[in-house]
Amino acid sequence: MSSLNRRHFLKTSGLLGAAAAVGSSLPAAENESKPGQTANTKFAVNVEMWWRKLPFEDRIKAASELGFPGIEFWPWRNKNIDAVADLTKSLNLDVVQFTAWGFSPGLNDPKNHKAFVEEIKASCPIAHQLDCKMMTVVGGNDQPGMTQEEMHQNIITGLKLAAPIAEDNDIMLILEPMNIRVDHKGHCLYGSAPAIRICNEVDSSHVKINWDLYHMHITEGDLCGHLKEGMEAGQIGYLQLADHPGRNEPGTGEIHYNRVLKEAHALGYDGYVGLECNPLTDEVTAAKRVAAADIW
Which family does it belong to (predicted)? Predict the structure, then answer.
């Protein structure tokens, strides 16, 4: 190596090292004491996954203390909904979405459609009590003897039955595709294309996709490209995120969420983004990493 090339190599290596050092540091949140108060994106903390050791209502208080404007959670049953409603209203905290229908029994089996419709009917008053505008529904795990096409068609049929209820109550049902490589082996719905097709077939203003960027990344990659397709199709009702690998907060894995959140903003998405992720070390650090992902 010539002396000129060697000098160039050393200079370049030094710059790269400095850049790496800067990249490994955690940018300061806009409000250090309340990192949940972010500049561009509204985040809703999943209080099933954050503060797991605390009683449920204390988790809600903790989310508010960090400055987050919203929360989300999983099933509403076995929770003190009166207390949750009173607490979130007193804290001026939005309940953004909860799960109205989970993995089992499967929405992808017609024998469960009557129960599905009844559960959506029962969940709507809960949503109204919480001033919540969205409820997640899940397609279900593989049904023995059914093809994927048959299961997806059964999801369409079930959602068509429930869509008028959602429309009458002005509550959006958000269908969540999963990933089967890491978390949900045997689940019947994964990836954006089939979810878009299902919602197109249902053709309701109140049936859209819970577009979990973590699941989409694992299933198909090209997050910004597929996000654009989903927005252009008019079928994205809600965004969730987690980094990969690990399903922890942004900045702990391989997804460049600054770019993804910026693209969502540019595409016109102005709703909440759900933090369905496990804090890697502690919730304060996780909140600061979330705030750092909202800087662009």
Answer: Belongs to the hyi family.
Mean pLDDT by 10 residues, the chain (296 residues): 46 40 49 93 98 98 98 98 98 98 97 98 98 98 98 98 98 98 96 98 98 98 98 98 98 98 98 98 98 97
DSSP state for residue 32 in the 8-state scheme = T
Rounded CA separation 251/83 (Å): 34
**Measured between alpha carbons, how far is 172 from 97 in angstroms, rounded to an integer?**
9
Beta bridge mates, 176 = 138
Partner residues linked to 137 by β-bridges: 101, 175
Q: Where are the domains of the chain?
A: 30-293
Closest CA to 261 of 26, 40, 70: 40
pLDDT of residue 31: 75
pLDDT of residue 27: 55
CATH homologous superfamily of 30-293 equals Divalent-metal-dependent TIM barrel enzymes (3.20.20.150)
Residue that is written with structure tokens 């079930």 in the block: 158
CA–CA dist 114, 133 (Å, integer): 23
CB 50 within 8 A of CB 59: yes
CA separation for the pair 241, 187 (Å, rounded): 19
Q: What confidence score (pLDDT) does residue 211 get?
A: 99
- pLDDT at site 32: 83
On whether the CB atoms of residues 98 and 135 are closer than 8 A, the answer is yes
Q: Are strands 207-212 and 172-176 parallel, antiparallel or unpaired?
A: parallel
Calculate the dihedral angle through the C-alpha atoms of 295, 236, 227, 212, rounding to the nearest 10 degrees. 70
Active site amino acids: 176, 276
The closest of 98, 102, 147 to 123, measured between CA atoms, is 98
Which helix (DSSP H) or strand (DSSP E) does residue 87 occupy?
helix 81-90
